Amino acid sequence: MRILLISGISGSGKSVALNVIEDAGYYCVDNLPPNLLIDLIKTLETDGVKSAAIAIDSRSTHQLQNVATTIEQLRQLGHEVKVLFLTANSETLIARFSETRRSHPLSHHLQATHITDCNLSLTECIQEERELLSPLQFLGHVIDTSNLSANHLRNWIRDEIAVEHASLILMFESFAFKVGVPLDVDFVFDVRILPNPHYDHALRPLTGRDQPVIEFLETQAMAQELYDDILTFIDKWLPSFKRDNRSYLTIGIGCTGGQHRSVYMVEKLAKYFQQKERVLIRHRQTH
């Protein structure tokens, strides 16, 4: 069976992700206690279910430490198990809770179970949840949803589940340094040293996927040199990450606004590696 475990910080978009995955034909279960996971999978397998997505959150406080062992047991039973962990910076999470006017779900759980002081602030609940979920964060692929719209996240999740099984998925992600370095990248390359198309009024409204911007950057010798250096680095070390049994390797490419130079470089690198690897492309500041 294909099993997708979803976890992450409250407010980071788990419900959005689960809805997209359910629309893709997965049997979905929300907030399952991890100790019931193996029994659930056995039942679903008996019922002929081929793909299942299960959300696990911080309210299963005392069972989170056993999730890694449970995943290994499922794999030994022949199941394909992947983990998606959604997170976001605290500023984004606070803004989302303020917009919805909802309280943090962990505050009610802590009060009911008398784990700690029930008068925790929202910021304290977020920090407490990060600590509780830390055993899960690096079991699979981390997605930073900071400053992403719900529609943007839906598209990313669709891309995730559309990728067939591969030993390693290479992710190229453009971003804006003025917004901040994403939390989900493994390597960061800074392309702000390249001439900025933003200062050309004809190019300003375009992105690094548009031909005029591509032509502008292709005429810059240092753009080709930087591309060659980044490509050489990834090409050299990618086999080592495969041997380390990594499922994802995320390469972040940043420029000032995340619109021109970083997008151009991501598209150019992805085009090269798509010839031999499973590649996903993400642009945080463009659609």
UniProtKB/TrEMBL annotation:
NCBIfam families attached here?
A: PRK05416.1 (NF003828)
* Keyword tags: ATP-binding, GTP-binding, Nucleotide-binding
List the HAMAP family: RapZ_like (MF_00636)
The primary gene name is rapZ
Q: Indicate what this protein is called per its UniProt record.
A: RNase adapter RapZ
Q: Which residues form a coiled coil?
A: none
Which segments constitute the RapZ-like N-terminal domain?
A: 1-162
Q: Which residues bind GTP?
A: 57-60
Q: Which InterPro entries match?
A: P-loop_NTPase (IPR027417), RapZ-like (IPR005337), RapZ-like_N (IPR053930), RapZ_C (IPR053931)
Q: Where in the numbering of this chain does the RapZ C-terminal domain appear?
A: 170-286
Q: What is the lineage of its organism?
A: Bacteria, Pseudomonadati, Pseudomonadota, Betaproteobacteria, Burkholderiales
